[in-house]
Design goal:
The protein is 28% helix and 25% strand. The protein is an alpha/beta fold and 639 residues long. The strands form 5 sheets. Strands 1, 2, 3, 4, 5, 14, 15 and 16 form an 8-stranded mixed β-sheet that branches. The protein has an 8-stranded mixed β-sheet with strand order 18-17-20-19-22-21-23-24, with helices on one face. The longest helix is centred in the C-terminal third of the chain and has 28 residues. It is globular. The two termini are 41 Å apart.
Length: 639
């Protein structure tokens, strides 16, 4: 602890001063000893100053004998999968007792690269909870994927020293780890002294051992207790997942209760949980309740939701109620029902009625479905072989089975019985790639469903029982620039929209209040530049139709060259002549050329001193701080 901070806290701890807040008449859940201790808890400057009945505070809250536990931690989640903006999710889940979120912005990075990661960091900067980030490791997920961006080890480097970045996100490309691909190990070595998350479903024992030996620390893909046990035996920390599509908690916790094994290497996570499920069931509090109902000791369940996860990620100031720890608490009615009655973050009680403020999002991130309209003919699926591969969908899980079925030969498969038609449509670069297959177990009739939320590359997935409705569903996704679409008998099905209260309307109207005037000006300027570029592209596309072959060839040649920029869109305010430093370094340089390369990324040439200019991504830079000349002090004469 820093010296001056310690001195302040010590005055309260030693009883010399009153605490800012004292929670009294409570039963404390001690995650170190497993005891229930009747005591008071003193808080100073958002930290726990002491645990004793003797403490007094400027403000005191009587908990009436209720239980006080550390704030819950979600060990692994994707904010992009919740169907709301990051701060909306954090604020909603915090009301259920989750005060720490360990986020993997893997989805945003696969669509928008560094801009997607920066969006997650920016949107959660002032959230009423601790929001940490794991750096996406597999963008794209594998070499087979068609995604929006490539995010290499060089792109990660500017984030390594960010205090909110805890380590490397889920390593999905397990073959690259097991077979020692150098590019993967370069990424892992960047975070060798920090936590590296895994993604290892159904690896054989020897491959699982190699995966762990390479440096992977955790996994959240275990769907059975038997597989989770194999992982823990190798030292992997297992995050038990209970989300919207994947429900793994029951099988794993029942196995823990049945065998009585130690739970130190188990935590809870949601991974992907939609907002409506959180509103209905809860968040990590739901996992704790469910585990206890399955027979797990409540204190063990609370430890899995708190201190176990904190230790896993090196969060020494979180996960327990002890002097020096951050004052994040959940108040529980009892240890049977485990209902959350109050939540404290940094010593302040969360107000359930507080408005949720959402920072604006740039138009650039709202226009990522780059795809021409599709026709029904693109979903033709001829059946000519004796055996056809069919994707069997498992209810309540995210796993599938590859079946081989005999289907009647046809020029175009038409769904029947329990079979549907499913397609993946590339949406990032308008390549025209569409894959079509037969699926079993979805049960759709008279329509189609499409979504651009499809892990992990987030191309458009559409499933239906006829080609026409599938085309309508995909084209609606293009029009809306992402989301979900339902089509029935040729007509789009609009969701029922709840009426907004006057208060909600007011919150929406004031949604930009968190931005400073400078931030708002920069955002408006970047959006104006984006709109201008979109307008220019449309004008150019019209003129293309009038061009001859030679002219079009020359135009393509010009466009693959570098495009000089007056000002950056990715880093508003950055332009030629700007004084900058590399992130994490102090030497000041000057931008001598700002441009967009043929891959669409903004880059620049930076000159440091007398050396030759070097090429850098604009996201690897930050504005140089202006130096101030210290005032000269006149020495006083001694008397």
């Amino acid at each position: 602890m820093e010296y001056t901070q310690y001195k302040k806290l010590a005055n309260v701890t030693l009883g010399k001063q009153k605490a800012d807040l004292v929670l009294k008449n409570l039963k404390l859940v001690d995650v170190f000893t497993g005891e229930i201790v009747e005591s008071n808890v003193a808080v100073k400057d958002g930290l726990i100053a002491g645990v004793s009945r003797s403490y007094r505070g400027k403000k005191e809250i009587d908990l009436g004998g209720r239980y006080l536990a550390p704030g819950y931690i979600d060990a692994h989640l994707h904010l992009e999968s919740t169907m709301v903006t990051p701060n909306e999710l954090v604020c909603t889940a915090a009301k259920h007792g989750t005060t720490t979120f360990i986020v993997d912005p893997h989805e945003a990075a696969n669509v928008s690269g560094a801009a997607g990661i920066d969006y997650i960091l920016n949107q959660t900067e002032k959230s009423p909870a601790n929001v940490y980030v794991m750096m996406p490791s597999c963008v794209p997920s594998t070499s087979l994927d068609d995604n929006g961006c490539v995010f290499s080890a060089n792109d990660m480097y500017p984030y390594v020293r960010n205090p909110r970045v805890l380590g490397l996100g889920e390593v999905m490309d397990d073959p690259a780890v097991i077979h020692a691909e150098e590019s993967m190990f370069v990424k892992m070595n960047l975070f060798e002294n920090r936590t590296i998350d895994g993604h290892a479903p159904y690896l054989p024992n020897k491959e699982l051992s190699a995966y762990k030996m390479a440096g992977v620390d955790t996994d959240h893909e275990a769907t059975t207790f038997e597989y989770a046990l194999e992982e823990v035996r190798r030292g992997l920390h297992v995050h038990i997942r209970e989300g919207s599509a994947a429900h793994n908690l029951k099988d794993i916790v029942e196995g823990i209760v049945r065998t009585g094994i130690d739970t130190e290497y188990f935590s809870f996570c949601t991974d992907d949980k939609h907002i409506e499920d959180i509103l209905r069931d809860g968040h990590i509090d739901y996992s704790v309740k469910m585990a206890v109902k399955l027979g797990l000791d409540p204190i063990r369940a609370i430890k899995m939701a708190t201190i176990n996860t904190a230790k896993c990620y090196g969060l020494k100031h979180l996960g327990a109620i002890s002097p020096g720890f951050q004052a994040d608490f959940v108040v529980l009615d009892n240890l049977t029902d485990l209902n959350v009655t109050d939540v404290f973050y940094k010593g302040k009680r969360l107000n359930e009625d507080a408005p949720i403020r959402v920072r604006p999002c740039s138009h650039v991130l709202k226009h990522t479905v780059r795809l021409d309209k599709v026709k029904a003919e693109r979903f033709l699926l001829p059946i000519s072989k004796k055996k056809t591969h069919v994707i069997e969908i498992h209810a309540g899980q995210i796993t599938t089975t590859d079946l081989t079925i005999s289907l009647p030969p046809t020029l175009n498969f038409e769904p029947f019985g329990g079979y549907s038609k499913i397609a993946a449509v590339e949406r990032h670069h308008n390549t025209g790639k569409i894959g079509v297959a037969v699926a079993k177990g979805y049960g759709i009739r008279n329509g189609a469903v499409a979504s651009s939320v499809s892990h992990d590359s987030h191309n458009i997935i559409v499933i239906g029982d006829n080609d026409a409705d599938m085309a309508i569903a995909v084209n609606e996704i293009i029009r809306t620039q992402g989301g979900y679409t339902v089509v029935e008998n040729g007509k789009k099905v609009a969701p029922k929209k709840a009426e907004e209260s006057e208060e909600e309307k007011l919150e929406t109207d004031n949604s930009e209040e968190q931005l400073t005037d400078e931030e708002r000006t920069r955002l408006e300027k970047a959006e104006k530049q984006f709109d201008e570029r979109q307008k220019n592209r449309k004008t150019a596309s019209k003129s293309d139709k009038k061009m001859g072959k030679a002219e079009k060839k020359e135009k393509v040649h010009r466009e693959t060259k570098r495009e000089n920029l007056e000002e950056s869109e990715e880093v508003p305010g950055l332009k030629n002549g700007s004084k900058v430093t590399l992130k994490g370094e102090s030497e000041v340089g000057e931008i001598v050329r700002l441009y967009r390369s043929s891959d669409g990324k903004e880059k620049c040439m930076v000159k440091f001193g007398d050396s030759k200019p070097i090429k850098k991504r604009v996201t690897a830079l930050e504005f140089a701080k202006e130096k101030t000349t210290p005032e000269k002090k006149t020495p006083s004469k001694k008397k």
